[in-house]
Amino acid sequence: MSIYDRTVSTHRTHNQRFGYPFFLLETTVLEGVWNKYAILLSVLLQELQKPLNKRLEWLFTSLHRGMLMTSLHSWFDADTVILNPNIPLEIFLPPSRHDDVHLLLTKDWNGMNNGVFPLRVNSWSVELLSAALAYPVTRPDVALFWPDQSALDRVLHENQYFAASVAYCPLRWFNAYMASADGKSLNPDSPEQLQVHRGDLLVHFPGTPRSALESTLQPYLVLANEHLGEWELRLEDTQYLKETRDFWASRISDVATQADVKTENEY
Questions:
Q1: Which residues form a coiled coil (predicted)?
Q2: For 142-177, what is each residue's pLDDT tens digit?
Q3: Residue 231 contacts residue 104 (beta carbons within 8 Å)
Q4: Is the pTM for the entire model greater than 0.70?
């Protein structure tokens, strides 16, 4: 079984546990990483043609080197491994009062990282992905260091319409990076808040060369397949319930404060 099949297997197990639909792209449509946005657009358009009560509300999404996975609500790169299949994806989504939030992203030392992200199923998402996909054609003068990621980042920076509906979440929620090489401890040379901890949903290996992918992921795939209780914590025994509740409550407070400031400035 290839390294990609093994990572996909951890996602299949998670999806089956919660009954999430699962989409997998194994045939390239566009060049390289741009397949990510192409398949997302395809799924979005299919869902938006359905009656409102039958369509998915969110996509949770991921792609790496020709393989893409989407399940209920989000995007996952294929260099991601589910370590705690007890975590429902819904825990990360904004409460209904945050109906203006359509995309959840995370940041690391390089800025925004789009390895894993939840995306709301609506016309805004179609417009966003279309803009990102077209960016290298409409703005050939702009260098894109990480092609698809940089294009999305530029679109968000250049368009308030898109930027206003994005929330940046703690990276560990659904995009945590590897800790030590053996997965058994934290890496003292990397920021702790970006590293996967016991009980976290998954681990992501961005930037890992193809030649080193199998050796790098192997210890974490072993952990995933061992199903150890210390890693597969129940949701209520993790930090997620409190952190997500506090995060969205804080956002409500921030929005209210901004509204008060705007009102004061109008006088």
A1: none
A2: 999 999 999 999 999 999 999 999 999 999 999 999
A3: no
A4: yes
